Amino acid sequence: ELGLSITDAQVSEMESHLEDIDFVMAAEEERKLRHDVMAHVHTFAHYCPTAAPIIHWGATSCYVGDNT
């Protein structure tokens, strides 16, 4: 609706994996990246490969940390 190239399939893929939180994988990613938010972005992208390119759009670690 806003002109961004986000497909219904990408949205559906993310919705279908909302509860699939792999904390072990996220911890491994955090050790590699040394960034907690990006570790979860990468972990979520693993479960949502079609949506991976758009997962981080519009959200920064400051947004997540400061506004939640």
Automatic annotation (TrEMBL):
Keywords: Lyase
SUPFAM superfamilies with a match to the protein in the record: L-aspartase-like
GO molecular function, a single term: lyase activity
Matches recorded under PANTHER family: ADENYLOSUCCINATE LYASE (PTHR43172)
Protein name per its UniProtKB record: Adenylosuccinate lyase
Quaternary organization: Homotetramer. Residues from neighboring subunits contribute catalytic and substrate-binding residues to each active site.
Organism of origin: Cirrhinus mrigala
Residue ranges of the TM segments: none
